[in-house]
Amino acid sequence: MKKMRIVFFAFCLCFCLRPVFAAPEGTSWFEGLEASGFVFKGNSVFSDPTLLEVAAPWKGRKISPGMLEDLRQALTRYYTDRGHINSGALIAGVNPENGTVSVTLVEGKIVKTTVAGNKRLKERYILSRLNSAIGKKTPFNIHALNQRLQLIKRDPRIKGIHAAVSPGLIPGEAKVDVKVSEATPWKASMKFNNHGSPAVGSSKGEISLGHRNVTGWGDALGVSFKRTKGFNGYSVRYSVPLTRRETTLSLSYGKSAVVLVSTPFEELDIESRAEIMGAVLRRPLHRSMSRETAMGAGLKKINAKTYILGQPFSFVSHPGDSEFDVTVLSFFHEFVETSLTSVLLLKSDLRFGLDWLGSTVHDDSAVNYADSRYVSWLGKLQWTRNFRFLKSALFVKARAQLSNDSLMPVGKFSAGGAATVRGYREGLISGDNGTLVSAEWRIPLFELKIPGISQRKGDGRLELCPFFDYAKAWNCSRPDPAMKEILSVGAGLRWMISEKTGARIYWGKGLKKFEPTSEFNNLQDNGVHFEAVSRIF
Length: 537
What we know:
Elements: E1 4-8, H1 11-17, E2 37-41, H2 48-55, H3 65-80, E3 88-94, E4 100-106, E5 109-116, H4 123-134, H5 142-153, E6 158-167, E7 173-182, E8 186-193, E9 204-211, E10 220-227, E11 231-241, E12 248-259, E13 270-287, E14 291-308, E15 311-312, E16 323-338, E17 342-354, E18 374-386, E19 393-403, E20 413-415, E21 429-431, E22 433-447, E23 461-474, E24 485-496, E25 501-510, E26 528-535
Helix pairs in contact: 4-5
InterPro entries: Hemolysn_activator_HlyB_C (IPR005565), Polypept-transport_assoc_ShlB (IPR013686), POTRA (IPR034746), TPS_OM_transporter (IPR051544)
Subcellular location: Cell outer membrane
Family: Belongs to the TPS (TC 1.B.20) family.
C-alpha cells in the first residue's frame, strides 16, 4: 500500500529565534498616537479587504511596540493557519502625521526542490506535477503540496512518495526534498472465463502484457491476446501524457479473425475478419482527491469482412456489404466523485459516423440501408455505496444508447451475458438503441484463505452477490428484434484469494423465456457465468 508523508520544520520556531518580522525600534515618537488605518504591500494570496478584517481589532488603538507585535503575529498567524507556513508580516513603518501603519507581507516561496529515489521516472515528470504547489512564482502552501502528493500517489508508476520541507537561508524561502519509491513498471495478467459468444466458443482465455513507463515520461504500452475455439484476436495500445495536467493521447490497434463453430453453421465455414484503429485525446478539467472531470475526443476506423465457404458474403441488410468500413468521431465528458462511502461515475459520449477514409456509404434512396453516416449518444452511470450494515456494498450501473439512424453491426447496442444481463447468453439481443440497468449487493461471508497465497489482511474474502439485471434493445427504421427485452435475477460468489488472484461465479434466472436448441446449449444458457483472474505482477 502506498504511503505518503509530509515532514516540515517548525517555521514559527525559526521565526522566533530570528527577528524576521519584528516591530521597528526607537518608537518613542509615536507614544499617544492611535492607529487610524493600515496599508499592505506584497500581498497576493489575500486581498487588502481580507487583511483589513484581520487587522480591524487594532484600529483606533494606541500605537506601541507591543500593539505592533500583536498585529504582526495576528497577520502572520492568518497566513500560517491557512497553510502558508513560511509567510509572514513585517511592520514597515508608522506615519507620525496620521497614524497609518504600513505592513509588508512576505509570502514564502520554494527556491529549491530535489528529487531522490526515482530510477526510471524522469525527475521532470515528478517536478512538473508538483509545480502548481512548489513553483518559484507561487506562494508556498503546505496544504496545496499535500493535495498534489495525494494525487501523485494515485499514479500506478509510483509506489510511495513523501516530502520534507525546510527553511532556506533567507526569511520567506524554503526548500523541498522529495523522495520517491517507484512501482514495478511491468504488468501481466491472465483470465479464463466463459464470456465468449457461444457461436464462436464460450470458453475464452486472455493474456495481457504491459509496461507503464516505457521512456521514463509515464508513457504506457500494452498488448492483449484473446482466444476462443473460433475467435483469435489481439490489440495493442500506447498512451503518453502530453502535459503535467495529465492530458493524454492514446493510440490503439486491434485485429481479429472469427469462425462460427456452433452447429449447424460450422459446416458453412462462415468467417469474419476485423481491423480497428483508434486515437483518443483526453484532458482533465478538474482534479482533486474527491472529484475529477474530463473531456476528450476520439477517432476510430473499423474495417470488417465476412465470408461464407471462402467467398465474400453479406450478413447485413445491403447485399454489397461483405466488406464495410466505418469511421467514427466521438466527443465525451466524464465525471467522477469519490467520498469515504461512495463513488459516482458519469460518462456522456456523442458519436458521429462520418463519410471519411473510405467509409461505407449507400446512396439508395428507396431503402434505408445502414452505413457509416449516423449520430448516436451513449450514456453511462456507475454508483458504488458502502454500508455499515453487514459491511456490504451496493453496485449500480446503467447504460443507454440512442441513435438517429440504422447502425452497422459494430455500432449496435447489445446485451446479454456476464457484463450486462446475466442468465442469458452473450449478445443475445441487439439494436440501434438500448437501455441497461443492473444492481448488485455484495455481502461478505467469511475468509477462505489459501496457505502461501492469501497472505494479507482481507485476502480470501468470500462474498455473496445477489443481483438484478434488465436490458431492452430496439431499432430505428427496421423491424425490432424478435426478442428485444430481457431481465434476470440471481446470485453469485466472489472470492478474493489475494491482491492479485480472484475468481467469481454467477447464476442468473432469466425472467424472459429463451429456449436455445440442444446444439446451442451451454453453461451460459443454463445461467452460469464464471471467471478466474490472476495478475502475475
